[in-house]
Design goal:
mainly alpha; Serine Threonine Protein Phosphatase 5, Tetratricopeptide repeat; two-stranded antiparallel sheet; translation initiation factor binding
Length: 592
């Protein structure tokens, strides 16, 4: 027979009634059992229960009124109660092991916690001791630093005291020296005053004697000065007469030379015409007429019409930078030449007026480049001359325009000749400044001054460049011209002004005009021509060129009539004449 005991009272009264009806036996609570403790593990018993209100509390079950009458039933009940009690008092080893395990774990945890706390306390004590040691060392170091700083300040203070003490000693020494010097100065003043009084007395005595002597000497000097003045007046009058005579002779010689030259030219006129030759003056008038025609009939109409000026400016801005980019390189020379030819000779031909205006701009760019670059570096003339030579071959009317602008920038030196007293049309020059401008001189920067505090300006007369500046600029341009003459013709002969025979013509005309030879510019240009063409001309003309060099050498060493030298007597002329002499000697040394 099996019996079951519920784990706890059911919270449901219905369930409780159902369960209660299953058995007619009820086990009374065993409050006297001390061997079994349901709360020993600290876990709440399954019989505990809380109701939400008193109304839910079930009523006590009604005790059965059935009385047990037989012994078997009584014994069955007792056996059942005993079995129940035995079951309730059953000892579970697992529960005991679990309890013991919990106690051991608790003890182990407490032991581990105690060890950890001890270790933490030890580490804290160790860190505190290390921090104390570190702070002590830091305090000791800081104390040493402070002590060293105090010692340094003490040493510095001692030095400052020594310096001040030394300064005071020097000051006292200087003060006493000043006092001694003042005392000595006063003594010297007294001594000087006494000496001066003595000297004054002696000087007065000496002056008295000298005055007597001076009167005698003045009388003698006056008579002598009158005699010298009379002689000086006579010498000055004689010198003025000699200078006037020399001027008259020079003027007569110049007039006679011009007359002889005019007669010679007149006599040779027919022969010149037959040979196709011209005089320097004719060449100058021709170049001048081309230049004035270019200004009047080309540049003025272009600049007066906005459309023409815009087209001209656009093409000109393409050409001018290319000339400045030229270098002494075959590829650069060829590229720039082709570029300029492409601008000047496009597939659609340019209008004649625009073409002529671009020729003028191209010539001006080349000449300005020669004036700036060649003056500074001689080798810059070679690529510039090669580009110009190619353009002279390919561009129509360019030789005439180029030579006309060359004469404009250099005056009569490319021919060579002196600029006449009248223009190409016979009009006399307005003043000397116009004649100087036509001769190739350029004006310097504009000068202006204010009048009082007004804003109006009065322009001063702008001066022209000096002879040295003019000489260097013209030499740079003529060096390019001489290099052009040196280049042999390629496809067809160039304009006569750019052929090699012009070299002989130029030197012959230069040596035939004494008025030109006396200018320092002539000596500089002769040196430039010999530097570029001297050796080459010797190969071409041989002994005839040697005779030309001989005339030049005589002109720079011995001089022409009446001791006149090539280049004159000015410092620029003397230096240029020395260069000519060295260049002639170099050419002749190479010929040997």
């Amino acid at each position: 027979m099996r019996f079951s005991v519920p784990r706890s009272l059911s919270p449901s009264p219905v369930r409780r009634q159902q369960q209660r009806s299953k058995s007619t036996y009820r086990l009374p609570p065993d409050s006297d059992d001390s061997d079994y403790d349901s709360h020993s593990d600290g876990v709440e018993s399954d019989d505990s229960f809380c109701y939400a209100s008193e109304s839910e509390v079930p009523k006590q079950p009604i005790k059965p009124r059935v009385k047990i009458k037989t012994t078997a039933e009584q014994r069955h009940i007792e056996d059942t109660v005993a079995a129940i009690r035995l079951r309730t008092r059953h000892h579970d080893p697992y529960e005991e092991w679990e309890k013991q395990t919990r106690k051991d774990a608790f003890r182990t945890a407490r032991k581990h916690q105690t060890a950890q706390q001890s270790q933490i306390y030890d580490e804290l004590d160790k860190s505190r001791s290390q921090e104390v040691l570190r702070l002590a060392a830091l305090h000791a170091q800081q104390l040493a630093e402070v002590q060293a700083q105090l010692n340094s300040m003490k040493i510095q203070q001692q030095r400052e005291e020594d310096r001040l003490r030394t300064g005071w000693k020097e000051r006292d020494k200087l003060l006493w020296q000043r006092i001694d010097s003042v005392i000595k100065l006063e003594e010297d003043k007294v001594r000087t005053r006494l000496e001066a009084e003595r000297k004054v007395r002696e000087q007065e005595e000496r002056k008295r004697q000298e005055e007597e002597m001076r009167k005698r000497e003045q009388e003698e000097k006056r008579r002598k000065d009158e005699e010298d003045k009379r002689k000086a007046q006579e010498d000055e009058a004689r010198q003025r007469a000699e200078e006037q005579k020399q001027k008259d002779d020079a003027e007569k010689q110049r007039i006679q030379d011009e007359k002889d030259r005019a007669d010679r030219l007149a006599a040779e006129g027919e022969h010149r015409k037959a040979a196709g030759l011209s005089t320097p003056e004719d060449d100058w008038r021709n170049a001048r007429s081309i230049l004035m025609n270019l200004k009047t009939n080309t540049m003025r109409p272009i600049k007066s019409v906005k459309a023409n000026k815009s087209a001209w400016g656009e093409q000109r801005r393409k050409i001018t930078p290319k000339i400045g980019q030229l270098t002494n390189d075959a590829k650069s020379i060829q590229d720039i030449t082709n570029f300029i030819l492409g601008v000047m000779l496009p597939q659609q031909p340019l209008p004649p007026m625009l073409y002529a205006g671009l020729l003028s701009s191209l010539t001006k760019a080349i000449l300005l480049q020669a004036e700036t670059e060649v003056t500074a570096e001689k080798k810059a003339a070679i690529p510039l001359a090669q580009v110009t030579f190619s353009l002279l071959e390919r561009l129509d009317s360019f030789p005439d325009v180029f030579f006309a602008k060359l004469v404009q920038r250099c005056g009569g030196w490319p021919l060579p000749c002196r600029v006449p007293n009248t223009d190409h049309d016979g009009r006399p020059w307005d003043d000397d400044r116009e004649h100087q401008k036509v001769s190739g001189y350029r004006k310097t920067a504009l000068q202006s001054d204010k009048i009082g505090g007004d804003e109006d300006f009065v322009k001063k007369e702008v001066p022209f460049e000096s002879v040295t500046e003019y000489m260097d600029r013209v030499a740079g341009v003529m060096r390019v011209y001489f290099h052009i003459l040196k280049i042999p013709p390629r496809s067809k002969p160039l304009h006569p002004m750019f052929q090699l025979p012009r070299c002989w013509t130029w030197f012959a005309r230069m040596l035939g005009d004494r008025s030109l030879l006396e200018s320092p510019v002539a000596a500089q240009l002769i040196y430039t021509g010999l530097d570029v063409l001297g050796s080459h001309a010797l190969e071409v003309w041989g002994q005839q060129w040697v005779k030309m060099l001989e005339l030049i050498y005589v002109g720079v060493t011995v001089g022409f009539a009446e001791g006149r030298f090539i280049g004159g007597t000015s410092p620029p002329g003397v230096s240029a004449r020395s260069r000519v002499q060295i260049e002639v000697e170099r050419i002749m040394a190479g010929a040997r």
